[in-house]
Design goal:
This protein has 160 residues and is mostly helical. The protein has helices at 2-5, 12-28, 32-47, 67-86, 91-108, 110-114, 116-130, 134-150, and strands at 52-55, 58-61.
Length: 160
């Protein structure tokens, strides 16, 4: 059954290399790391208010009245991470929203998921705002540099 999915006699190593190459191409076309940090920010913010941790004989329960706020912030961060991966055109909106939600999570969600979610959200939002699509920037920048360096300074060609 497994080998039928990969084309019969196809080598497993070749199939794994093709899958890795495909994932690398997919990852390079979107703000992958911004989405990953944002996803990693949402998980501790969701988890800690509902978890009952035991450190030896000392129980630690972070359940507060802000559990609903933590759930909303965490779910929004996870949804924004998925939108960063699959809808790259909303990266600036999602990045700013992630930064704002991470900052709001500090007082609302148990110090931003014990500071793990706060810092991860700030990094993910910053990466999302700073990410630029690879094709638009790579092709237009060298053409602009060539045009500015071919004409000597001070010359006006006036409509040639």
């Amino acid at each position: 059954m497994f080998f039928e999915l990969f084309g019969g006699r196809r080598n497993l190593r070749v199939a794994a290399a093709d899958a890795r190459r495909g994932f690398r191409t997919w990852r390079g076309e979107r703000p992958f790391w911004a989405g990953l940090f944002t996803f990693a920010a949402g998980l501790p913010i969701i988890y800690f208010p509902y978890a009952h941790l035991n450190f030896g004989a000392i129980p630690l329960a972070l359940s507060t009245s802000a559990g609903a706020g933590s759930l909303i912030i965490g779910v929004l961060l996870v949804a924004l991470a998925i939108s960063l991966w699959f809808h790259q055109q909303v990266r600036v909106f999602a990045g700013i929203t992630v930064i704002l939600l991470a900052l709001i999570s500090f007082p609302v969600a148990n110090f931003g998921g014990l500071l793990i979610g706060l810092f991860s959200g700030l990094i993910g939002g910053s990466l999302a705002c700073a990410w630029v699509p690879p094709t638009g920037a790579a092709e237009s920048l060298p053409a602009a540099n060539r045009a500015s360096t071919t004409t000597p300074a001070g010359e006006d060609h006036g409509g040639e």
